[in-house]
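Posting here for the record, re: AHM.
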Amino acid sequence: MSEQAAPQHRQITVTEHLLLHQKQSPTATGSFTQLLYDLILAAKLIARNVTKAGLLDVLGGTGEINVQGEDVQKLDDYANRILIHRLQRTGVLCAMASEENADVINIPDAFRRGEYILIFDPLDGSSNIDVNINVGTIFSILRRISPSDQDVALSDVLQPGYKQVGAGYVLYGPSTMLVYTTGQGVHAFTLDPSVGEFLLSLSNVKIPETGKIYSVNEGNVSYWDEKTALAAASFKGSDNPRGAPYSHRYVGSLVADFHRTLLKGGIFMYPMDYKDPDHPKGKLRLMCEAAPMSLLAEQAGGMASDGRRRILEIIPDTLHARVPLYIGSKNDVQHVINKLK
Ligand code: AHM
Ligand code: MG
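Prediction output follows.
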């Protein structure tokens, strides 16, 4: 079970939480804490605009198509700009990569550079924003491997997920929540808009070993192979870890679907599909979606796989590589892996 937050008068802020963990690491310099601090500020600015969607002229598309071939929403673009603007001046990053940008984003010469690389999806699920459904920002933090006096190489960015030194997301929902890990468990904070601070809500979040909910876009069933279709169908009957039908929930925003899976258990899947019959592939991006969620899942005692391999061990071949994703409760994910064999 996750540990509940302290009563109101003893609540701790995310900054206090970060400093506490920093103190516990004798080699910590404070730069990682600075990075998260600036990331949180960017998230608050994004939250401010997301909650005003419908009031400000922020809904709809910009008319542009992004590197993924998708319509760029005005809020996607805003979130991306805010993150790049705020984070390039932290002094602790040597590069960034965004779902919205084709290439690695270098830190301009005007700013100090550091050891960390930030990869993010600025506004995941943004096709849902026009209908007032939860969206989120997902982030992944790596440490560069090449010497710091050299230019950052693509190989610094294309590291497998187990190398992440931090990962998390901000969920813009009925309340704004920050969930993060630095490899010492998963902790969840809620933004109190009256004081502008994220306050600790849950520490050491643990995913139940078996859940009661499966989450997948079943409208795609005719694009799946037979084993995938049978694996998804097994959650409707009794041939599954629960031995009884699961409930089905699918928001269509990874951050929202993952957040529910993290807290309540079960499985979220985005299988490989044959929409392009010659090039079967998953939809979700390895570096800015699957890898950070997988670090969180494993830190919470869950599991994440592409159906064959542990997501965290996959070495990305390109910045925008896509993978199938099966993530959530250990027993539910293992069940699907067995079905796919
Ligand atoms: P996005 O990054 O362009 O918003 O796309 C990713 C989203 C995820 O949030 C979600 O899990 C998935 O796409 C939903 O896809 P679909 O509409 O095909 O079910
Ligand atoms: Mg996304």
